[in-house]
């Protein structure tokens, strides 16, 4: 925020300049001198602002998918939104979360390494309470997980990884797989303490219960795809390519489309008077000799040359020549 000088301060500044106590040129030099900025090596900057914006966009979609998923599973009001995306050392993240919390450790092939989805106990126990028929309230005192609670949490949080997979589709196709569920952060060492991580904080509200869901993504895990998190990549990737499955479906539908095939003996033109005077037995002269092949058209395009015949007492046409695109033009024959 810029400080605004009072009138008395402005008068004092002008007086100092006029008396020579302050030199305007010296002030200009101080402004132009290179400013030194401190750098904390323990908090190495690995993610640029561009990367942070891209991660924010991806996980805003993730938050929407989670809202839909949990609303359907819990059948109650659920609201999840991205609060903050920041980078910090892994050790600082571990020290910032409760001593007893829900830590879902997972991998996401083809990325190498492990990531963590940390769910605040208030949120996790409210989900379990709701799934077991309760009102969805968190207990007043957090206790260690029972086998039933552990199984329920593994299932419900394991399926949240499908939402994460869907959110990351615009960048890379990943296959997240739950590896373990822990409750003590001290037993979870997925990277070195000084490793930089991207921490995506999601504000979560289930009924009257609120809490945080934190997604921890180590820099070393997504370093191979960092270039895809740039704005340039996002604009270039707007040209969507069809998946092989979509291409096959499209081919299948096109192959079932019906086309008309017409074999022409030839053409002729007569006037209205001649047309009205036609009767049985009259002969109409065509523009092609009898030895010329038949023009076979698919739709309105000439594609083949054939000859007339019969098969099993039914009229038929045999294809004698396949025309290329340049040859597919109608030729006229004059007697």
UniProtKB/TrEMBL annotation:
Major subcellular location class: other
Q: Topology relative to the membrane, per the entry?
A: Peripheral membrane protein
Is Protein transport found in the keyword set?
Answer: no
InterPro entries named among the record's database cross-references: CheC-like_sf, Flag_FliM, FliN-like_C, SpoA-like_sf
Keywords associated with the record: Bacterial flagellum, Cell membrane, Cell projection, Chemotaxis, Cilium, Coiled coil, Flagellar rotation, Flagellum, Membrane
Task: Supply the SUPFAM superfamilies for this chain.
Answer: CheC-like, Surface presentation of antigens (SPOA)
Note the superkingdom of the native organism: Bacteria
Coiled-coil region = 10-42
Gene3D superfamilies attached to this UniProt entry: CheC-like (3.40.1550.10), SpoA-like (2.30.330.10)
Q: Where is the Flagellar motor switch protein FliN-like C-terminal domain?
A: 253-323
Q: Where in the cell is it found?
A: Bacterial flagellum basal body; Cell membrane
Q: Name one Pfam family in it.
A: FliM
Q: Does the keyword rRNA processing apply?
A: no
Please name the NCBIfam families in this protein's record. Answer: fliM_switch (TIGR01397)
Family of this protein: Belongs to the FliM family.
Name of the protein: Flagellar motor switch protein FliM
Q: Which organism is it from?
A: Paenibacillus xanthanilyticus
């Amino acid at each position: 925020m810029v400080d605004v000088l009072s009138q008395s301060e402005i008068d004092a500044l002008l007086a100092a300049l006029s008396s020579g106590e302050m030199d305007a040129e010296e002030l200009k030099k101080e402004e132009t001198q290179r400013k030194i900025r401190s750098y904390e090596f323990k908090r190495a900057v690995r993610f640029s602002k561009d990367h942070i914006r891209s991660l924010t966009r991806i996980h805003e979609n993730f938050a929407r998918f989670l809202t839909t998923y949990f609303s359907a599973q819990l059948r109650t009001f659920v609201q999840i939104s991205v609060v903050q995306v920041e980078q910090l050392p892994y050790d600082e993240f571990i020290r910032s979360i409760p001593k007893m919390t829900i830590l879902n450790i997972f991998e996401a092939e083809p990325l190498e390494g492990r990531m963590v989805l940390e769910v605040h106990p208030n949120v996790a126990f409210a989900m379990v309470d709701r799934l077991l028929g309760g009102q969805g309230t968190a207990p007043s005192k957090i206790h260690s997980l029972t086998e039933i609670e552990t199984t329920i949490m593994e299932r419900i949080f394991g399926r949240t990884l499908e939402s994460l997979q869907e959110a990351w589709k615009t960048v890379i196709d990943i296959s997240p797989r739950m590896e373990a569920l822990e409750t003590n952060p001290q037993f979870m060492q997925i990277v070195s303490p000084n490793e930089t991580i991207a921490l995506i904080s999601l504000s979560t509200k289930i009924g009257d219960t609120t809490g945080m869901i934190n997604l921890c993504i180590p820099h070393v895990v997504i370093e191979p795809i960092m270039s895809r998190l740039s704005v340039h990549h996002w604009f270039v990737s707007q040209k969507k390519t069809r998946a092989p499955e979509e291409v096959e479906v499209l081919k299948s539908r096109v192959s079932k489309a019906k086309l008309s095939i017409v074999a022409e003996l030839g053409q002729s033109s007569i006037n209205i008077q001649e047309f009205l005077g036609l009767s049985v037995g009259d002969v109409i002269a065509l523009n092609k000799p009898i030895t010329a092949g038949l023009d076979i058209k698919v739709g309105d395009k000439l594609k083949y040359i054939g000859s007339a015949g019969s098969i099993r007492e039914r009229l038929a046409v045999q294809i004698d020549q396949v025309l290329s695109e340049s040859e597919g033009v109608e030729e006229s024959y004059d007697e």
